[in-house]
From TrEMBL, chain A:
Residues 644-671 are annotated as: Disordered. This is Radical SAM family uncharacterized protein. It holds the Pfam family Radical_SAM_N2. Residues 262-504 form the Radical SAM core domain. It comes from the Bacteria. NCBIfam families: rSAM_fuse_unch. GO terms for molecular function: catalytic activity; iron-sulfur cluster binding. Signal peptide: none annotated.
TrEMBL record, chain B:
Residues 230-252 are annotated as: Disordered. InterPro entries: DUF2344. NCBIfam families: sam_1_link_chp (TIGR03936). This is Radical SAM-linked protein. Residues 242-252 have a biased composition (Basic and acidic residues). Residues 16-202 form the DUF2344 domain. Pfam families: DUF2344.
Length: 671, 252
């Protein structure tokens, strides 16, 4: 029998008056669940390794939290990264890392699941482990410690944190958490035979849970990997990603979490499809989430209705990697706009497609409302570089699209680009200025006045595993910064046009560290540990990130191992090199990825298999999955007919006479 | 030509409801903005016919009055809701209470029949629990504090350090005996403080006690606002909703 676990809230409460935004540590969200500790066999602590305000709206954690808590034999609670002010007090007063639900110590749970949307959360993992009293190295843990599981997109190459985690799950989590729960439950019920090692072996034998300790990595004298091989019988050579098929069968989140504290996304979000086959070669999300699986229009309508009723949110986000691509997006948008007309509910559609249809959708969602900003993502400043990255947008497309937008009353257009792309030249980047100038010229004409603006927003490109660019050399920060300076000068070379153009960018150095963590191997763990020991926290926040700290730690820890920061980032790999994630199977055929990389270098484009025949990326046959898209031909009916929305009001006030409030829209950012 | 959509007009206000609400337990850490967001979502969930402001970004029409600081519990916070349809205030209060998380509770809801509500919130009474301080020690410190005509304290605000008098606004201050305990591990400070500008808060009075009487606090104090309202000649605080409750037009 495990002793029951008590709340650390009384100790924590004494510290809260001394820290910033204490409400973020209190819990009590609408939709939160606190289950009886002793009534559950398998207890999960789920972490999003960033501040509460960023972590609490995260869809992945909300979905898994709900799926686990629906089981009778399990419970799940949530924990987030604590800010340095509270961390210092917790250390001083010996308060451990806690969950916000019942304020139970994370170290008391059976499984500690951490969702990594980005690699920049790795140092926050170490803080949480340390505060929880869990040894940083998995090798030092015993049966009293939770199994530490990594998930999220970064888990497709967990090698840099392999030392710190017990296992990693690749791909969709809905079914994986169920399988892990079953395995842990059976092992506990059997009296924990074989201890922690046996449990990890059972997890590894599923062939979809990666347990790093059961794989040995050998290196060549020049620093490259020689091979990665299992050191246990029964452990697969390759671990396969998970794919949840039929999203209509998984309509989560059903009970959205509504925090008291302010968070970065104050809305009910419904994922309208998962996966993307546009084939943008820089986009890891598009590559590792294949194939496309749509949620049907009826399920989306029902989730939005129930989500608003249960949460009280006044904004709904229709999320996916490219929401305008849903086969029935026009009916979804007009149906929802009809349903919530006059309800002061705003609808947003994160889509950056450069075409008039995208503007039509935005118009529909903002029927009576303010038309402030629209976002498009041409990503590259020349036709040539757009062929390299497979972003099939011509300059005429862009001008036609912005003319439609400005002509329809939109005042502001935001354009996303990247800098540091493979084969990129100064001309490719400076070309962005010419595009922006043309946008303003065409826009002033279409709008009939000069009251329009365009913002150019630039992100630094980071090569990611499981993409055709996984072999490329990352552009060094000096080159990126120099090109951005040239671009800024070019934008302002025409004062009249430049005045209407905003320019937003970040310096290139954080991207280099993200590059190290993205394509690193197990030797990078020492760098992460040193940065953390020297105070590295919240590396995704520019005010906390220190390039100098990472650079110095890389110098100290990598030189002795015969490699370097540059070796991991700016070095181009060849076809035969064993990549640190080759034993992790995203379904993409490595030969296809290489061929697509060669096509990129030859400036050859690749169609979208959603609309054109299969191009054999390998995912569907390898994973036994298929594209699931509509159209269903069904429509969203008005709510008065479709559901009992009016019946739940506990008091009477019929005849609302609600009139037509503005339905604001943000066709917004997906980054 | 470019069409520029205009915001459509919102329904007019036909009724105002004044509510008293609490911030209890862990939810005392909600800031004023946190509470406003929670209330606005509760209004939607409870289907309250709240009126909206005009413009491109319509907001629910709610007025908040002198909110207690973040971290301070309260039994007596007030807000006023503007409705676009008439409704029974008791029903609205009950529905809102169900839609708000436990700890943010609706104490009372009455229809507004009078003006000058904000002016009626003349003073607050605060209960301050001071762990690790003996009642005798506190009583001595309070005596010293009250003997001063002026106690200048400094508070760090968003605009930098601000220096002001924490004494004049204090109507009464007393070290209240902890009932039924022989040797209490804490002392209770009961304060009645006038609403002034800049606001004098309990922590300002504590700064004053530290300044003039060296009162040290081994642990952070627990503060609760017990009441807000008109200040009677006796020095007591009376119910600010009384005038609305008595008004003949209100049959609820």
């Amino acid at each position: 029998m495990v002793m029951s676990v008590t709340s650390v809230y009384p100790q924590l409460e004494m510290l809260l008056p001394q820290v910033g935004k204490p409400i973020q540590y209190v819990g009590g969200e609408l939709g939160a669940v606190v289950k009886d500790w002793d009534g559950a066999t398998v207890r999960w602590a789920l972490m999003y390794p960033d501040a509460y305000e960023v972590g609490v709206p995260n869809q992945g954690v909300q979905i898994l939290y709900e799926v686990i808590n629906e089981r009778d034999d399990a419970l799940a609670e949530r924990t987030y990264a604590v800010w340095p002010d509270l961390e210092a007090l917790m250390r001083e007063h010996s308060v451990p890392q806690f969950t916000v639900d019942a304020h139970r110590p994370v170290g008391a749970f059976d499984v500690f699941g951490v969702s990594f949307a980005t690699e920049m959360g790795y140092t926050n993992l170490l803080t949480a482990l340390d505060l929880a009293g869990i040894p940083l190295s998995a090798a030092d843990r015993d049966e009293s410690h939770p199994i530490v599981v990594a998930g999220g997109h970064a888990a497709f190459n967990p090698e840099p944190i392999a030392e710190f985690i017990d296992c990693a799950v690749l791909g969709d989590g809905e079914e994986a958490v169920g399988e892990i729960t079953d395995i842990v439950r059976d092992w506990k019920n059997e009296g924990r035979p074989g201890g922690r090692r046996e449990l990890l072996l059972r997890l590894a034998r599923t062939e979809s849970i990666y347990v790093p300790r059961f794989y040995d990595v050998d290196y060549l004298p020049d620093g490259r990997i020689q091979r990665v091989v299992p050191n246990q019988s029964g452990v697969p050579f390759r671990v396969h990603k998970r794919t949840t098929m039929d999203l209509d069968a998984w309509p989560y989140p059903k009970k959205p979490l509504v925090p008291l504290a302010e968070s970065v996304h104050e809305r009910y979000a419904v994922e309208i499809f998962r996966g993307c086959t546009r084939g943008c070669r820089f986009c890891q999300a598009g590559m590792i989430t294949r194939p496309v699986r749509e949620r049907s229009i009826d399920t989306i309508g029902r989730m939005v209705q129930e989500g608003i009723e249960k949460s009280g949110f006044d904004e709904v986000g229709l999320l996916s990697l490219s929401s305008a691509d849903h086969s029935e997006i026009a009916d979804i948008c007009s149906g929802l706009a009809d349903r919530y007309d006059g309800d002061n509910v705003s609808l947003s559609l994160p889509s950056t497609r450069v075409d008039a249809f995208n503007v039509d959708l935005a118009n529909e969602l903002s029927r009576n409302g303010r038309r402030s900003g629209l976002t498009f993502a041409p990503e590259g400043g020349s036709e040539r570089i757009r062929r390299v990255i497979n972003k099939m947008v011509s300059e005429e497309d862009l001008i036609r699209t912005v003319v439609t937008a400005y002509g329809n009353g939109w005042r502001q257009v935001k354009l996303y680009f990247m800098c540091g792309l493979p084969t990129e030249t100064d001309e490719d980047v400076v070309g962005i200025a010419r595009m922006a100038h043309e946008v303003i010229k065409a826009g002033r004409q279409a709008a009939g006045n000069r009251d329009i603006r365009c913002t150019v927003s630039i992100g630094g490109f980071v090569p990611k595993p499981h993409t055709p660019f996984q072999w490329c050399g990352q552009t060094d920060p000096e080159t990126v910064d120099r090109r951005l300076k040239l671009l800024k000068e070019a934008i302002n070379s025409d004062r009249s046009l430049g005045r209407a153009i905003g320019f937003r960018y970040h310096d290139g150095r954080p991207s280099l560290i993200e590059g190290l963590l993205s394509r690193g191997d197990r030797r990078v763990a020492a760098v992460i540990r040193r940065v953390w020991q020297e105070g590295g926290r919240f590396d995704g926040w520019s005010e906390h990130f220190s390039y100098e700290r990472w650079e110095a730690a890389a110098e100290t820890e990598l030189t002795a191992q015969g490699v370097s920061l540059d070796w991991y980032t700016t070095r181009e790999r060849d076809e035969r090199e064993v990549l640190p994630w080759d034993h992790l199977d995203s379904g993409l055929d490595k030969d296809w990825l290489w061929a697509d990389w060669q096509d990129a270098l030859s400036e050859v484009e690749q169609d979208d298999c959603r609309w054109t025949p299969c191009f054999d990326c390998g995912v569907c046959p390898a994973m036994d999955t298929e594209i699931q898209i509509g159209p269903t031909g069904r429509k969203l009916l008005p709510l008065a007919v479709a559901g009992p929305a009016g019946e739940r009001a506990p008091h009477s006030h019929q005849g609302h006479g609600r009139t037509d409030a503005a339905t604001a829209t943000a066709i917004g950012d997906h980054r | 030509m470019s069409p520029r959509p205009q915001p459509e007009a919102q329904a007019p206000v036909v009724q105002r409801i004044r509510i008293r609400y609490t911030k209890r337990g862990p939810l005392r850490f909600t800031s004023h903005r946190d509470f406003a967001r929670a209330l606005e979502r509760a209004l939607r969930r409870a289907d309250v016919p709240i009126a909206y402001s005009s413009g491109f970004h319509p907001h629910p029409r709610v007025s908040y009055l002198s909110a207690a600081p973040t971290g301070v519990a309260s039994e007596a916070e007030y807000a006023e809701l503007a409705l676009r349809d008439t409704a029974d205030p008791v029903g609205i209060g009950a529905a809102l209470d169900r839609a708000l998380p436990p700890g943010l509770d609706i104490g009372e809801a009455v229809t507004a029949h009078t003006g000058g509500f904000a002016d009626r919130l003349e003073a607050s009474s605060w209960r301050v629990e001071l762990g690790g301080v003996t009642p005798d020690r506190l009583a001595a410190a309070v005596e010293t504090f009250l003997a001063h005509d002026e106690v200048l304290v400094t508070r760090l605000t968003k605009k930098g350090n601000r220096r002001f008098d924490a004494r004049a606004a204090v109507v009464s201050a007393a070290s209240t005996p902890v009932a039924g305990v022989d040797e209490p591990a804490y002392a209770i400070l009961d304060l009645v403080v006038r609403q002034v500008t800049p606001a004098v808060r309990p922590d300002d009075v504590l700064s004053g006690l530290s300044l003039v009487a060296d009162l040290e606090l081994p642990v952070p104090p627990r503060v609760t606002r017990l009441a807000q309202g008109p200040l009677a000649a006796s020095g007591d605080i009376t119910d600010p909703l009384e005038a609305d409750r008595r008004a003949p037009a209100d049959r609820h």
